[in-house]
Amino acid sequence: MYLMKKGRGFVAFLLVLVMVCGVLSACTSEEAENNQQPSQSNNNEKVDEIYFLNFKPEIADVYNKIAADYEAETGIKVKVVTAASGTYEQTLKSEIAKSEPPTIFQINGPIGYQTWKEYCLDLKDTKLYSFLSDPNLAITSNGGVYGIPYVVEGYGIIYNNAIMEKYFALSNRATDFKSMDEINNFEKLKALVEDMQAHKDELGIEGVFASTSLAPGEAWRWETHLANIPFYYEFKDKQNYDNPILAGLASNEIAFKYSENYKKIFDLYINNSCTEKAMLGTKTVNDSMAEFALGKVAMVQNGNWAWAQIKGVEGNVVDEKDIKFLPIYIDVEEEESQGLCIGTENYLAINSKVSEAKQKASIEFIEWLFSSEKGKDYVVNELGFIAPFNTFEEDEKPKDPLAREVLNWMEKDGVSSVPWGFAVFPSQNFKNTFADALLEYVQGNKSWDEVTKTVIESWKVEKAKGE
Amino acid sequence: MHNRHMSRYFFVFVFPTLLAFLLSFVIPFILGIVLSFTDFTSIIDAKWVGISNYIEAFSNKDFINALRFTVKIAIVTVITVNFFAMCLALLLTRKIRGTNVFRAIFFMPNLIGGIVLGYIWQLIINGVLYKFGVTLTYKPEYGFWGLVILMNWQMIGYMMVIYIAAIQSIPNTLIEAAKIDGASPFQILTRIKLPVIMPSITICLFLTMANSFKNFDSNLALTAGAPSRKTAMLALDIYNTFYNTLNGEGVGQAKAVVFFIIVAVIAFLQLKLTRRKEVDNV
Description:
Helices cover 48% and strands 13% of the residues of chain A. By secondary structure, chain A is of the alpha/beta class. Chain A folds into 2 domains: 49-152 and 344-392, D-Maltodextrin-Binding Protein, domain 2 (3-Layer(aba) Sandwich), CATH 3.40.190; 155-342 and 414-465, 3-Layer(aba) Sandwich (D-Maltodextrin-Binding Protein, domain 2). By secondary structure, chain B is mostly helical. Chain B has one domain: Orthogonal Bundle (MetI-like fold). Chain B contains 12 helices and 2 strands. In chain B, a hairpin with a 7-residue loop joins strand 1 and strand 2. In chain B, helix 2 crosses helix 12 and helix 3 (61-91) runs parallel beside helix 6.
């Protein structure tokens, strides 16, 4: 009896082993099958579904409408899945390993390309690449083209001109600026802001700047957008590179040379705000935008995408004609010629591991979106993109006030935009560490020197991990 | 004949559950251990690298901090949860009115998910701290105690229910015999009640220990590790390594395997210790 019991246990164990081996070998054979498919498939394969993993939650609904229209026109179903804010990388990671992975996905720039290069198709010979008004904007590597930017965006200090006019009309103010056009460097900005803060009650506001949101996951305006500017200048100072972005990509270490300048503008934000410094760890971006929309503050740092958010706040008092951009000055030499920060973190890539027919269908969908009448109508009027493609006529440029301001500043004489360099930041971890250090700084637990040291250290460590 | 009958239906009944167990636990588990020795982006493109992931995991300051923090939380939580649960259980097994209502009320927090709990408690604690001009992320100690309060609130009801069931199953004869022998209530508690319900204490200690070690969602919702990862527990640190670090997938997997070993060893030790104290014969 005892032997029989022992034998049964052994048989059960063998069966388990067999099952495990069976499943594991099934996994690998599926992979082999997938690798064979592209060479076997011909253009007769009926593609009925392509899959786009969307990055921008603000416009997810619009994509559903676009998908419906495209299916009505061509019969191809476009599955659009939107990753929740801040979760794109992890969503893409799990979706791409499935048997029906996304055929169109996004990468955020050269660093994102490093992570996903095994999955990016070469788009050099596509019509889509030829649509780009500036081919240099695309992500390239060894002659191949792997990422196409589909939207150009800009950020700076958004201000409510109605409140500024009220300030200029005050009789007891300490400055004598007549209009915002005179504010073209940090000195003047600081004088203006500090005097406005002193007169905030008369102006009917609670502070000049909206809250510097530092709640977890809400600090991207500081660790990414604001950080872009001092790093841009540091990389520009390096002599042997074609452009600052390449210099940044090649930097395994940084000196954070313009750290004091970052501190100047950051201090201006937190010392002239409607919220006390110690409370900033609970503020979110939504809070800041709401404060601006409700007229509680005169200025907020954000980008042209924020217009939809401001307009959507219940009780919004900011008028289309009053909302304008100011460059973010950080007190460097010749900053009078510095414009807004313009660029993109949104590049489309096509999955190189799906069948040829699916790749073709995916590329055709994107080409339709940016060149057909219906597609362009969506892009301009509902998605609100400033698309960097030569397929858009003059009268097809966007209508929303902040997008117009971006174009304004892009075309201004004597002013050059700061390109988006934060795509070369080592990793999300680096940005998180930067944000953590800023939080401790505003709470009074870290000195600025310690923040600088933390940032330098984190860049070095995170860059090394990418090797 | 009985055996033959049984063995024919053996597979029919066991197979579905066995399959589910294999697919959702055993296979991912083995896959995880194998992947911890590789560098990978997604499951299908792994490259073998040996133990370099483990070396990197242990030389990572955040990991060691998270380990220390989690151990501290686990120790404090195990003691406080079980103490309060036992007190409540003893209180609610007396002959007073309304014990059922109270039992239900104390159990309810356990039904709320960790993310919601973390978010609500963060609002409450920040609301209180607002009067003092600080926030929850001002010092790691605030996050520590916030987490302890939250986990107590969530787990006390559950453990209390287990203890109540155990206390109710103590045969009355024992208590009466002790009373006749002149034992004081305190002696009855420590010499009779506790030893008899030791199996439940074993279970509750194990559950609290495992739950506090594994805690992720309330940690994420309460502080998300702020300030500067000092209040990040092990699970959150593994999550950050896996998703937010370049090439961090292998290291994250290695950390997860280490995590499993630590929890398994502690649970095993604790089980052994309390098993010895259990009174078999009643």
